[in-house]
């Protein structure tokens, strides 16, 4: 999946996707506001006609218009909300993928630094064993200098290892937080879909009763 989503085609489509997203958001907002206007319009007409006791056909026609405007209001409102939820879900999944890639890179770096530190420590131990008991002054001084240099390198590698380990733990914590947020959003999305299905069923039942 990572190889598929790393295609250059997606980066070229990203600009058009953002424009399309904003266009759909504007369109849904316009439809929602128009539905609100229609509901208010036919609600007031519905009350006035009911109070005036007009003929049943005109009253049924107004009632049908009111029902359709309410249906459009619910559909456009839920579509707008679910579109925003979808956008947030895509953003969280993208962040999660980036954090997972960073997590893998840091883990590899930690392993490499650990192997290098073990290698230098093993070389230091071999040098100490080979040069122990041989008391030539110049050789001993050179050995001490080499040993000090190796110690400095080991300390440097330990510091780098600690720094990388801290970054690794930080990235791991961020990945866990993004996963938790993504799971919460998924549960909220499932609940909204259940409510939307219930609303759709109630609308279908109301339409069936109206047709009868």
From TrEMBL:
BAP29/BAP31 transmembrane domain residues are 2-105
Keyword Protease recorded: no
Q: Report TM segments.
A: 73-90
Q: How does it sit in the membrane?
A: Multi-pass membrane protein
The chain positions of domain Bap31/Bap29 cytoplasmic coiled-coil read 152-211
Any single GO BP term: intracellular protein transport
Give the superkingdom in one word: Eukaryota
One Pfam family, please name it.
Bap31
Chain positions covered by the region annotation Disordered: 128-148
Cellular component per GO? endoplasmic reticulum membrane
Location relative to the cell = Endoplasmic reticulum membrane
Residue ranges annotated as compositionally biased, kind Basic and acidic residues, are 135-148
Q: Which UniProt keywords apply?
A: Apoptosis, Coiled coil, Endoplasmic reticulum, ER-Golgi transport, Membrane, Protein transport, Transmembrane, Transmembrane helix, Transport
Keyword Electron transport included in the entry's annotation = no
Q: What does this protein do?
A: May play a role in anterograde transport of membrane proteins from the endoplasmic reticulum to the Golgi.
- Return the similarity comment: Belongs to the BCAP29/BCAP31 family.
The protein depicted here goes by the name Endoplasmic reticulum transmembrane protein
């Amino acid at each position: 999946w990572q190889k598929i989503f790393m295609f250059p085609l997606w980066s070229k489509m990203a600009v058009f996707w953002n424009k399309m997203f904003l266009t759909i958001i504007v369109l849904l907002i316009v439809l929602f506001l128009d539905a609100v206007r229609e509901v208010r319009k036919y609600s007031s007409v519905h009350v006035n006609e009911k109070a005036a006791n007009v003929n049943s056909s005109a009253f049924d026609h107004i009632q049908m218009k009111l029902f359709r405007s309410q249906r459009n209001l619910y559909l456009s409102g839920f579509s707008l909300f679910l579109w925003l939820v979808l956008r947030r879900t895509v953003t969280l999944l993208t962040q999660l993928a980036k954090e997972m890639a960073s997590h893998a890179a840091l883990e590899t770096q930690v392993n490499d630094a650990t192997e290098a530190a073990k290698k230098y420590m093993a070389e230091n131990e071999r040098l100490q064993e080979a040069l122990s008991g041989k008391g030539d002054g110049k050789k001993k001084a050179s050995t001490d200098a080499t040993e000090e240099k190796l110690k400095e390198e080991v300390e440097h590698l330990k510091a780098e290892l600690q720094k990388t380990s801290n970054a690794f733990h930080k990235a791991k914590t961020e990945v866990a937080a993004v996963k938790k947020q993504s799971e919460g959003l998924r549960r909220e999305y499932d609940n909204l879909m259940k409510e939307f299905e219930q609303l759709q069923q109630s609308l279908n039942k109301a339409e069936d009763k109206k047709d009868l």
